[in-house]
Amino acid sequence: MTKLAFIGAGNMNGAILSGLVNKGFNPQNIIVANPSAPKREALSEQYGVLHTSSNIEAVAFADYVILGVKPHLIAQVCQEIATETAIENKCFVSVAAGCTIEQIQQALNGQYPVIRVMPNTPSQLGYGVSGLYASIDVSENQKQQTAEFMKSVGIIKWLNTEAEIDHIIAVSGSAPAYFFLFMEAMQNKAIALGFTEQESRELVQQTALGAAQMVINNDLPISQLRKNVTSKGGTTQAALTTLIDGGLEQLVTNAMDSALHRAKEMAENSN
Ligand SMILES: NC(=O)C1=CN([C@@H]2O[C@H](COP(=O)(O)OP(=O)(O)OC[C@H]3O[C@@H](n4cnc5c(N)ncnc54)[C@H](O)[C@@H]3O)[C@@H](O)[C@H]2O)C=CC1
Ligand SMILES: O=C(O)[C@@H]1CCC=N1
């Protein structure tokens, strides 16, 4: 049975790990490594996975090593792994933004198989989106297996170039936060209108869920769904005019460009 080592027990690795276990992956074939205990212990208690403070122990256990530490720590972690344990036959899966395959292989000190995956946190619930790009050193079997892991927590898209990983960051990796910010702003206004915090949350979350479900269940363009809510001279038109005149569309484009730019900058700074 394939074994997985999650290096880092943070938000993203935690989301993938929990998504996998929720979908029936045997937790006894998963180990999570984190220097401090609370997060890995919580994952172990909740999902039944093994845990350790030692990256080396975790890597020795597994066929696939999911690198889920902050980007600036990836090189250090890879160097530690490569110098302290045998890593032949292991496949490395990095979820880090702004950290290239070349940089990871350099830190591992060899052309080991590396797959970059850019997931997002809704993976935890099986609603993730992941972009995948594999180095030429990755076998067909390793590609297939990694695709299977990520498919079990959401939809996947194989990318033709590594540069497209940055596009995925802008479109889906960072994007749950865009929607959360929009929902926070709506919740705050609902509170200002007199609803309780909980009422405001329920009103906003149900509306967001309903809107997303309408997009999913319709062949209509999203713009048509918007038009269907917008009565001429009505309340929605008044609200949308305020958003459009305020530059929302350009702002969204600029925000996605900023994510892209930052991903490139992070890769350059990692050299
Ligand atoms: N949070 C997100 O929505 C997404 C994050 N990512 C990527 O995932 C990676 C992790 O991000 P988050 O989970 O948000 O960060 P996080 O801070 O929640 O998790 C990182 C974890 O790594 C642990 N850690 C620190 N040093 C370590 C070491 N030497 N060995 C093992 N573990 C160590 C930390 O204690 C922490 O639990 C980043 O590279 C990020 O670019 C990618 C897509 C989405
Ligand atoms: O904010 C970040 O850098 C990471 C990558 C995508 C989502 N979180």
From TrEMBL:
<keyword id="KW-0521">NADP</keyword>
<feature type="binding site">
    <location>
        <begin position="7"/>
        <end position="12"/>
    </location>
    <ligand>
        <name>NADP(+)</name>
    </ligand>
</feature>
<dbReference type="InterPro" id="IPR029036">
    <property type="entry name" value="P5CR_dimer"/>
</dbReference>
<dbReference type="GO" id="GO:0055129">
    <property type="term" value="P:L-proline biosynthetic process"/>
</dbReference>
<dbReference type="Pfam" id="PF03807">
    <property type="entry name" value="F420_oxidored"/>
</dbReference>
<keyword id="KW-0641">Proline biosynthesis</keyword>
<feature type="domain" description="Pyrroline-5-carboxylate reductase dimerisation">
    <location>
        <begin position="162"/>
        <end position="266"/>
    </location>
</feature>
<dbReference type="GO" id="GO:0004735">
    <property type="term" value="F:pyrroline-5-carboxylate reductase activity"/>
</dbReference>
<dbReference type="InterPro" id="IPR028939">
    <property type="entry name" value="P5C_Rdtase_cat_N"/>
</dbReference>
<feature type="binding site">
    <location>
        <position position="55"/>
    </location>
    <ligand>
        <name>NADPH</name>
    </ligand>
</feature>
<keyword id="KW-0963">Cytoplasm</keyword>
<comment type="similarity">
    <text>Belongs to the pyrroline-5-carboxylate reductase family.</text>
</comment>
<keyword id="KW-0028">Amino-acid biosynthesis</keyword>
<comment type="pathway">
    <text>Amino-acid biosynthesis; L-proline biosynthesis; L-proline from L-glutamate 5-semialdehyde: step 1/1.</text>
</comment>
<protein>
    <recommendedName>
        <fullName>Pyrroline-5-carboxylate reductase</fullName>
        <ecNumber>1.5.1.2</ecNumber>
    </recommendedName>
</protein>
<dbReference type="InterPro" id="IPR000304">
    <property type="entry name" value="Pyrroline-COOH_reductase"/>
</dbReference>
<dbReference type="InterPro" id="IPR036291">
    <property type="entry name" value="NAD(P)-bd_dom_sf"/>
</dbReference>
<keyword id="KW-0560">Oxidoreductase</keyword>
<dbReference type="Pfam" id="PF14748">
    <property type="entry name" value="P5CR_dimer"/>
</dbReference>
<dbReference type="GO" id="GO:0005737">
    <property type="term" value="C:cytoplasm"/>
</dbReference>
<feature type="domain" description="Pyrroline-5-carboxylate reductase catalytic N-terminal">
    <location>
        <begin position="3"/>
        <end position="98"/>
    </location>
</feature>
<comment type="function">
    <text>Catalyzes the reduction of 1-pyrroline-5-carboxylate (PCA) to L-proline.</text>
</comment>
<dbReference type="InterPro" id="IPR008927">
    <property type="entry name" value="6-PGluconate_DH-like_C_sf"/>
</dbReference>
